[in-house]
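Example record

The entry below shows one chain as it appears in the dataset: sequence first, then C-alpha cells.
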Amino acid sequence: MTILDNRPLLGAEIDKVAEVAGYLWQKGWAERNGGNITVNVTDVVDDTLRAMPALDGRHGIGMTLPKLQGCYFYCKGTQKRMRDLARNPMANGSIIRICDDCSSYEIIADEPVCPTSELPSHLALHNYLLETGSRYRAVLHTHPIELVAMSHNRDMLGKDVMTRLLWSMIPETLAFAPLGLGVVPYETPGSVELAEATLRQVKDYDVVLWEKHGVCAVGLDIMDAFDQVDVLNKAACIYMSGKAMGFTPEGMTDKAMTDVQQIFNLPTKRPC
C-alpha cells in the first residue's frame, strides 16, 4: 500500500514524474544520481494526507519561504537514481509538507527518503512562482548533453546568443520554447549564488542553462518542463550535427522567425 492508492489525481502527477525520470535516463541526461525533480502537489493532496504525521521530525530548509506555508511537494530523494525513480517513484522520493514557520519541512510519505540536496534552490523557485501568481508547479534540473557542450564555448554565453541560434534551427523551437534560454555563468553546484542567479533568470526564461553543468526548467507540470528542455536540446543537436558535417547551419532568417511568432501568436520577445 502507498499513499497513491485510491488517489488518482496525486497518482497521475507522480506517474508523470516517473515517466519523465525514465526519459532523462534514456537520453543520458541523468548519469548516476544526477538531476532533481520537485513538483508542487498541494492542489491534489486530500484531508487525510494533510492530517498525516511527520515520519522523522522537522528538517530546516535554510531560508524562510513565506509563500510555501502549508504546501506539499513531491521531491526526488538525495543520492537516488532517475532510472530507479522511473520504476518506483515512492521508494526514490517522498512527499514533504512545509511547516507553518516557512523555514522547515516534514516528510509525510511513503518512507523517510531525504529530499534532494538542492531542495532549498528548488523551493526558492517554487516560492517565487507562487509569489508572482504563476501557474507553474514543477521544477526540473537535468544535464542535457548538447546544451551543456555548447556552454563550454565562451562565444555562446552572451545574452540571448544561444536563444537566437536555437530558435533558428527549426520552427518548433520558437513555437514550443518561446521564451528562449537564459544563461547563468558558472557557479558552484548547490550554492546560494547559483540559486540567486537562477531566480533572476527565471523572471524572463522558463529554461535556464547553468554553464558547464546543466539546465533548470520550470513548467505547468513536470512533463511541460521536460518538453521545453527537450525542444531546446533538439535544436542544439541539429546545430552540432551540421558542425560535425563540416558546415555552420545558416539557420532561419529573422523574417522567417517573425512569421512563426505571428502564426502561433507567440510572445514578441526577441533576443538582443
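Notes for this example: The domain at 8-264 is CATH 3.40.225.10 (L-fuculose-1-phosphate Aldolase). The chain has a mean pLDDT of 94.
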